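[step 3/7] fold_predict: job queued, chain A
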Amino acid sequence: MQPTNPNFTHTFAPPVMEARRWVDGRNFPAHRPLLNLSQAAPVDPPPEGLMQAMADAILTDPAAHLYGPVLGRMDLRTELASQWSANYGGSVTSDQVAVTAGCNQAFTSTIATLARAGDEVIVPLPYYFNHQMWLDMAGIRAAYLPTGDDLLPDPERAAALITPDTKAIVLVSPNNPAGVEYPAPLLRAFFDLARAHGLALVVDETYRDFHSAPGAPHDLFRDPDWDDTLIHLYSFSKAYRLTGHRVGAIMASPARLAEVEKFLDTVAICPPQIGQIGALWGMRNLGDWLAGERLEILARRDAITQGFARLPDWTLMGCGAYFAYVRHPFDARSDAVARDLVDRASLLILPGTMFGPARAQGGSGQAEATLRIAFANADRTGISDLIDRLGTLTA
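[step 4/7] structure written:
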């Protein structure tokens, strides 16, 4: 039998793919069709102008079909640096920007330069499952930082987890899966903690464009030496509906990106050219459109909040960006509850056990009691339908 890397067998199967298998081959009643709230990805195509820009590049730009720079097209890197400097009130230069094949690659390449097998990375609970999977496969220990009912991590509790093996602290805000937005002072406290201990603070802001507050969500880029501590991750998938084109970004020191370049060159050589062309066109032309998308997501968030207020047996723990994180009322583990919701309510929702350790693995019990609802693909009518279906269930 061929050998298998035990780090890969140690981690779990891709959660969204596992959930899809729950409904493969299933027929759902016409009066209650499947409502798929499992994946945080837009299903509509990009705006027509953006698609036209990509189509034109395919037909008229021979260079778009060739290898590009490993760290991404310079025009996109320069635009990112300019807009981030303006939006965050700090200074970001093009040599502090890399483009990646999606934000997951931004994360994996970053962690690969920070830590090796046996090292530790502090990760708040609940975690984003692909982050956990990469740490497992790399042999890096996730030092879990529990959160309470507000789902916000505590810097003082994080400080107690730091050991000589700790290399980084990873935060996601707005959070996947919890939906909560980390306040600017909290992010600053983690920045100060990381700097004091010589650690990297990795902040994944994939859902930044749907933050409930206007303006910059934090002031970290205003620090003149931000890149000695902060590594910022971003995704174009949600902003411009480019999920299939895989475009993400890293903002970090030039020295860090020189190490990232080694990783990227061995994995994908370069990020997809056509997706980068689309992302650049979107950044230059879709500001007003993206502002409208943000308002629609915020309206759906409000619909979720109002809907769960009508479900006294359910607790809405966090809600923001694409996600609602809820405590269910059933005397069963969340993985069993999620499977049961497929049968009883034609709902596909991910269980908390996909976002943190169960009690048997040292967890607090939060994972078994919670569910993540990815509501961005449900309009307000669909959200009303979700609330109605949950309201018919009894514990």
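[step 5/7] annotate
The chain has two domains: 6-44+289-391, 48-286.
The radius of gyration is 21 Å.
exit 0
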